[in-house]
């Protein structure tokens, strides 16, 4: 029970100044805004025969959001009418003014005349149409009012109109403000068919049942498909609190509050709202009505299942396991196979945190197909593919499995899972080092249109799949030296996924990594070091690895070695093979810098064995190139050319430059035993490869590697007796060497 003060909105559930707790006992009631809508509908009915086809279409697009949405100020309603039906705006305003400034009998007469719209052989409005149902609800609600309630409604109408008049008077006194309002009016019309913002929900009283249901379904759809167009977490929670203030037993509002709390990672509020949702669902009997005697038990088992999912999301695995056991027990007692299949999927996710086992997942996929649960079966297949990709299965077998999954998606029109499947293919090709195929899959997803019919003009393009693909696309461009394009993609990501959205951490991590690589290439190690903290906050493993890279670049070898050894043990424990290989390559480089080539060799062989075992072709090629560097005089150029093919085809620009630099070194080393003529030809060929390497390094602004190339070229030109070219390279080298001091470390002492 809550006291209601003087309000602009009349509530028919109000009795002697008190609102009953069940505010949705009546589905709709009359408000001044709805009276303005009825005036508009009346005018449209009179002018219906005179409207052309385009005008009728504009009218229909205008009416639906106005009928379904919450009440709005008269000024905004008037501007919407002026944009869609300009010839009716003045007549609607005049009729509303006559009613508000007239007497109570004028409002009575208006409702009496409204009933005539349904009479006659060809009525202006059909009773079963959307407009007809709305008018009949309003007439019925008005007829149930007592005289005192009618008077309060009339007073509210006068206040509603006077507020608009006062606002117009202020606007007319200031021409600049008037121009601003006109611009805003045009923008508001463009946004009529898009989700309502905070300023548009301007009801001081409660929403009707239909308005509340429309608002909740709209916001829930936006949170799933396009979070940027939904209300901000704070404003949405404010509206939900307003709904729950008038009806605490509104279960759907509690569930939307749960989803809203998940956006901001609020574990307490999300748990609180989830428990309240299932409590209200049981208390109101909604489940029992739809599911018979099983409704109560169904709510309990799905409450436990959702609670397990919530705890798992926040990393509370012990609590999640307890809740899941409870859900399994209740589902077994009720013989609910669908709930048991969902429990089995979550059981796999929980056990995956402890040990890798695909037995549960395979069983879950088979059972899901048996019980006709394609969504769950597809998710299981994709989880299996992901697990086997990390286990080193061949790419062709994984793609065949994803093809079978895609058949399920297209058969059942599972648009969201189609997006997830393509994003997964992009990530798998990136894992195996095939950047061209990853780029192709990313472009495929970005050029697709959603199969889901999403309301309010929203396309399903702001999901996690799109965030993942765009992040990969930004990284691919950055690797090829297109930093401006990568910045544009990241800028687009920031607009699509604001910092407070749930998928923002994806682009934040990639943004930090790209900035880190640019700073390292440019030799600005202090800037790279400052970025490590941000990377660590988003991904601790990536952060520690990059901290070791910075220490290595700053010649703090012992500290870098200790950090890499700790990281190696941790990654081996969690079976992060890709990072294990990267760490091994960095450790080998530390040994080179310390002139311990013999110690680096077994480390590189271990990295090569792992990369081949897990089918990581690109890392295998990079390891071979590192081996070639450690044994320059023993490696055949033919073997080296075979190893660099994947790097030149799919590698980053920096890796391509390092590969060509290594080829030049091998050519020079092999030329030592040649005749003078062949030696000169080999050195000329090495200079050409160095020019190509220099082009690659210049593209990513890698000054340290450019300095090494210029030093090597100067030595070769000196050997060939080309003094002018030698002096040019020496001058460029000196400029870079003054900018990037070598810290007493011999030049050309590392592969990268």
Automatic annotation (TrEMBL):
Annotated ranges, domain Anaphase-promoting complex subunit 5 N-terminal: 30-167
Keyword vocabulary terms for this entry: Cell cycle, Cell division, Cytoplasm, Cytoskeleton, Mitosis, Nucleus, Phosphoprotein, Repeat, TPR repeat, Ubl conjugation pathway
Subcellular location: Cytoplasm, Cytoskeleton, Spindle; Nucleus
The keyword Phosphoprotein appears for this protein: yes
Keyword Repeat: yes
Domain Anaphase-promoting complex subunit: start-end pairs: 254-353
Gene Ontology cellular component terms for the protein in this record: anaphase-promoting complex; spindle
Record GO biological process: anaphase-promoting complex-dependent catabolic process; cell division; positive regulation of mitotic metaphase/anaphase transition; protein K11-linked ubiquitination
SUPFAM superfamilies from the UniProt entry: TPR-like
Domain of life: Eukaryota
Pathway: Protein modification; protein ubiquitination
Known function: Component of the anaphase promoting complex/cyclosome (APC/C), a cell cycle-regulated E3 ubiquitin ligase that controls progression through mitosis and the G1 phase of the cell cycle. The APC/C complex acts by mediating ubiquitination and subsequent degradation of target proteins: it mainly mediates the formation of 'Lys-11'-linked polyubiquitin chains and, to a lower extent, the formation of 'Lys-48'- and 'Lys-63'-linked polyubiquitin chains. The APC/C complex catalyzes assembly of branched 'Lys-11'-/'Lys-48'-linked branched ubiquitin chains on target proteins.
Family: Belongs to the APC5 family.
Protein name, per record: Anaphase-promoting complex subunit 5
Lineage: Eukaryota, Metazoa, Chordata, Craniata, Vertebrata
């Amino acid at each position: 029970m809550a006291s209601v003060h003087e309000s602009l909105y009349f509530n028919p559930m109000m009795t002697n100044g008190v609102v009953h707790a069940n505010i949705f006992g009546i589905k709709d009631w009359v408000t001044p805004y709805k009276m303005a809508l009825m005036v508009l509908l009346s005018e449209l009915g009179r002018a219906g025969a005179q409207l052309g086809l385009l005008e009728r279409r504009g009218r229909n697009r205008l009416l639906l959001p106005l009928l379904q949405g919450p009440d709005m100020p008269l000024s905004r309603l008037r501007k919407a009418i002026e944009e869609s039906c300009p010839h009716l705006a003045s007549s609607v305003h005049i009729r509303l003014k006559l009613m508000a400034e007239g007497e109570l009998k004028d409002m009575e007469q208006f409702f009496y005349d409204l009933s005539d719209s349904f009479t006659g052989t060809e009525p202006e409005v059909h009773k079963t149409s959307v407009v007809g149902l709305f008018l009949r609800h309003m007439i019925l609600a008005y007829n149930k009012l007592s005289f005192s309630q009618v008077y309060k409604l009339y007073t509210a109408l006068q206040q509603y109109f006077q507020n608009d008049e006062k606002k117009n008077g202020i606007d007319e006194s200031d021409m600049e403000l008037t121009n601003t309002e006109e611009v805003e009016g045009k923008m508001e019309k463009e946004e009529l068919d898009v989700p309502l913002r905070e300023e548009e929900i301007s009801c001081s009283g409660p929403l009707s049942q239909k308005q509340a249901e429309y608002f909740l379904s709209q916001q829930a759809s936006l949170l799933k498909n396009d979070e940027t167009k939904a209300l901000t977490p704070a404003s949405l929670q404010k509206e939900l609190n307003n709904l729950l203030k008038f009806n605490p037993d509104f279960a759907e509002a509690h569930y939307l509050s749960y989803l809203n709390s998940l956006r901001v990672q609020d574990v307490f509020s999300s748990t609180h709202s989830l428990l309240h949702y299932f409590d209200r669902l049981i208390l109101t009997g909604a489940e029992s009505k739809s599911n018979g005697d099983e409704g109560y038990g169904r709510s309990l088992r799905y409450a436990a299942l959702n609670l397990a999912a919530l705890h798992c999301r926040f990393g509370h695995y012990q609590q999640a396991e307890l809740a899941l056991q409870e859900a399994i027990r209740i589902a077994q007692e009720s013989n609910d196979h669908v709930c048991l299949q969902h429990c089995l999927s979550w059981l796999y996710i929980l056990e995956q945190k402890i040990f890798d086992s695909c037995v549960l997942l395979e069983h879950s996929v088979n059972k899901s197909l048996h019980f006709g649960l394609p969504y769950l079966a597809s998710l299981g297949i994709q989880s299996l593919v992901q697990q086997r990709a990390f286990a080193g299965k061949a790419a062709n077998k994984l793609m065949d499995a994803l093809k079978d999954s895609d058949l399920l998606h297209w058969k059942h029109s599972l648009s969201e899972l189609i997006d997830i499947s393509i994003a997964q293919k992009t990530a798998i090709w990136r894992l195996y080092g095939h950047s061209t195929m990853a780029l192709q899959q990313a472009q495929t997803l970005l050029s697709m249109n959603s199969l889901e019919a999403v309301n309010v003009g929203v396309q399903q393009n702001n999901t996690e799949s799109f965030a993942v693909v765009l992040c990969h696309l930004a990284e691919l461009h950055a690797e090829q030296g297109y930093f401006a394009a990568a910045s544009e993609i990241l800028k687009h990501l920031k607009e699509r996924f604001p910092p407070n959205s749930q998928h923002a951490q994806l682009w934040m991590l990639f943004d930090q990594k790209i900035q880190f690589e640019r700073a390292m290439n440019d030799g600005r190690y202090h800037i790279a070091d400052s970025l490590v903290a941000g990377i660590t906050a988003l991904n601790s493993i990536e952060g520690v690895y990059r901290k070791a890279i910075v220490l290595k670049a700053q010649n703090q070898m012992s500290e870098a070695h200790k950090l890499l050894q700790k990281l190696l043990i941790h990654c081996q424990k969690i079976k992060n093979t890709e990072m294990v290989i990267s760490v091994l390559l960095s450790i080998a480089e530390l040994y080179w810098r310390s002139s311990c080539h013999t110690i680096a060799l077994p480390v590189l062989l271990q990295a090569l064995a792992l990369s081949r075992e897990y089918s990581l072709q690109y890392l295998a090629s990079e390891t071979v190139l590192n081996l070639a560097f450690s044994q320059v005089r023993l490696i055949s150029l033919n073997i080296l050319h075979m190893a660099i093919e994947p790097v030149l085809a799919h590698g980053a620009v920096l890796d391509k430059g390092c590969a060509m630099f290594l080829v030049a070194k091998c050519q020079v080393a092999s030329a030592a035993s040649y005749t003078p003529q062949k030696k000169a030809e080999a050195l000329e060929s090495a200079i050409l490869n160095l020019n190509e390497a220099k082009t690659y390094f210049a593209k990513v602004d890698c000054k340290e590697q450019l300095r090494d190339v210029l030093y090597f070229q100067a030595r070769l030109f000196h050997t060939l007796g080309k003094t002018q070219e030698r002096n040019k390279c020496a001058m460029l080298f000196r400029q870079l060497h003054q900018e990037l001091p070598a810290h007493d470390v011999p030049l050309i002492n590392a592969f990268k």
